[in-house]
């Protein structure tokens, strides 16, 4: 678990970051600070390993605050202004998030933080999926979500996460694509570095794209031959 701190003077922006943090199973939000003075007290307590730090704060700026903390403090800057990017690199920040911050971009940044603060052990060999079961449970945030295999349209890779997409929901899971690929039954096929598709739900194939309306999934050269071999037995 990585204890983190949000330093943000805009309530809506702070609320959005807190919502994102709650969706990441290895992040623990300690506190939200609305000014640099309060933040400095928390940082000096040594409780927070990761700080989401807004640059434009009243009084002491986020950039100035970053220069006051120890070199080992991990920081992800958040700001609406791109011109601070160069200065952020001088503080050895992990990442620089430009508002409005999307969930995907947030997950990329915290994935970098996790690699530094919480190195993942090598994954044990995955057991073959139970072919007799038509559903499974998977951990997403603090929940165990029940999903049917035949409901999953495709899987999209998001750095240290994958997103399982059905007709009604998108479930974000802390797994890498190769882990997810090993856990899925044969009707799922990797077609791109960032995509696994359910062969049973493909509507059509047009050149280098698979249509799973409304999604249009690219087929990369690396996976094209294997994909075509998988569907060859179904060609008439």
UniProtKB/TrEMBL annotation:
Keyword Phosphoprotein: yes
Gene3D superfamilies with a match to the protein in the record: 3.40.50.2300, LytTr DNA-binding domain
Ranges of residues in domain Response regulatory: 3-114
Molecular function GO terms recorded: DNA binding
Top-level taxon of origin: Bacteria
Keywords, ordered alphabetically: DNA-binding, Phosphoprotein
4-aspartylphosphate, modified sites: 54
Residue ranges of domain HTH LytTR-type in the record: 136-206
The protein, known as: LytTR family DNA-binding domain-containing protein
């Amino acid at each position: 678990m990585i204890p983190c701190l949000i330093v943000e003077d805009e309530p809506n922006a702070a609320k959005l970051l807190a919502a994102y943090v709650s969706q990441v199973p290895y992040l623990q939000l300690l506190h939200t600070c609305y000014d640099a003075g309060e933040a400095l007290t928390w940082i000096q307590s040594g409780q927070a390993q990761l700080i989401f730090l807004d640059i434009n704060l009243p009084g002491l700026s986020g950039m100035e605050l970053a220069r006051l903390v120890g070199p080992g403090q991990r920081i992800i800057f958040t700001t609406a202004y791109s011109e601070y990017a160069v200065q952020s690199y001088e503080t050895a920040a992990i990442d620089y998030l430009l508002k409005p911050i999307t969930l995907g971009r947030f997950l990329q940044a915290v994935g970098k933080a996790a690699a530094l603060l919480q190195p993942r052990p090598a994954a044990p060999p995955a057991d073959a999926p139970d072919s007799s079961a038509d559903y499974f449970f998977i951990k997403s945030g603090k929940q165990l979500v029940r999903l049917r295999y035949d409901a999953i349209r495709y899987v999209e890779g998001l750095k240290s996460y994958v997103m399982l997409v059905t007709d009604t929901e998108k479930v974000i899971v802390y797994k890498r694509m190769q882990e997810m690929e090993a856990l899925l039954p044969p009707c799922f096929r990797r077609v791109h570095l960032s995509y696994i598709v359910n062969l049973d739900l493909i509507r059509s194939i047009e050149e280098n794209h698979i249509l799973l309306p409304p999604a249009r999934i690219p087929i990369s050269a690396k996976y094209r031959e294997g994909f075509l071999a998988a569907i060859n037995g179904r060609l008439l």
